[in-house]
Amino acid sequence: MVRIKTKEAASAWIGLLATVIVAGVLFSLQAKGVQIRWIAAAGVLLGTFTIVTFVALFIIRKYVSYKLKPIYSIVLSRDVHTKEIFSELKDKKVEDIGEELTAWADTNDKEIARLKEAEQFRKQYLGNVAHELKTPIFNVQGYISTLLDGGLEDELINRKYLERAEKSIDRLINIVNDLDTISKLESSMNKLDMEKFDVVALAKEIADQAEMEADKKGIKISVKGAENLPSPFWALADKHYIGQVFVNLIINSIRYGKEGGQTRIRFRDMLDKILVEVEDNGLGIGKEDLPRVFERFYRTDKGRSREQGGTGLGLAIVKHIIEAHGERITVRSEPGVGSTFSFTLKKVNLQDIK
Ligand code: ADP
């Protein structure tokens, strides 16, 4: 099998084929008794070869450039390694190359859009972090300057300003701790320390720790195991991180709960999963805010969140933790009625517990 590699060779082959056909016709005419002068015949054959070869070359060039132009424009409009692409496309049909390159360009466009989005997110995140840190830092600076400018000797303000500075520093520590948790979660997604533990007992322990905070608003916290299941209720998860999920959700239910309200933690059996619900009858969240509450630094009421010591990162951390476990968290809420945060955990059957 002859491999034709260039346009010129292809044209020459077409010219040769045409010449052979014409020679065949001349032979058959001679066989039928037509007188053929061989000098003229040679001229006809040479002419046929030359004309057909050049016409074929012209047509092939037109066709190839027609097909390749859009391909070039796609490739050259991108900063890609054309060498690699062409070596991959070497043995493909011209017709398929166009289609494949368009698909490739589409994939690239999507990837570029994703990277641009990530870059935008990174910039916004950095801006948010700077903004969140700025307020408490400037507050501390203000209080210290006032104290140094004579406030220290003023019995009326010296203690008050120091206490306020301390509050701002506590706020800074909370933000930095939350940022640290997020970056740890992002860098070690797969390094969860999975263990079997009684998730109802863990929730009770955290609820007890939050009792003092809840009492300030007269909020009652109740933890109930699944009705049809014997307590303890075992989960397979990272106990430390799930503890943090309970802390953040319970603290939020108090922070955004109403005076004399209720926080209920319930567990439902879902075959191989446990569904955990943290429900309150507090402020609730508006429909337009609901899809965004898990975003970093998103708050429905900035003033209230900050005043209550919120960093705006609590739910982002919760979502990170649950998703790192390969599970899901959702929220249902109605303003003035309350909110329910629900997440799943892997269940461990009692017979599997040694
Ligand atoms: P924050 O530190 O501000 O509490 P979170 O990430 O924990 O940050 O929560 C984000 C926002 O979601 C809060 O500022 C608040 O507006 C809203 N939110 C969270 N939990 C509740 C809840 N249980 N009830 C009403 N709103 C809530």
From TrEMBL:
Its EC number is 2.7.13.3. The keyword Transmembrane applies. Residues 128-349 form the Histidine kinase domain. PROSITE patterns: HIS_KIN. Pfam families: HATPase_c, HisKA. One of its GO terms (molecular function) is phosphoprotein phosphatase activity. InterPro entries: BphY/WalK/GraS-like, HATPase_C_sf, HATPase_dom, His_kinase_dom, HisK_dim/P_dom, HisK_dim/P_sf, Sig_transdc_His_kin-like_C. Keywords: Kinase, Membrane, Phosphoprotein, Transferase, Transmembrane, Transmembrane helix, Two-component regulatory system. This is histidine kinase. It comes from Candidatus Alistipes intestinigallinarum. The lineage of its organism: Bacteria, Pseudomonadati, Bacteroidota, Bacteroidia, Bacteroidales.
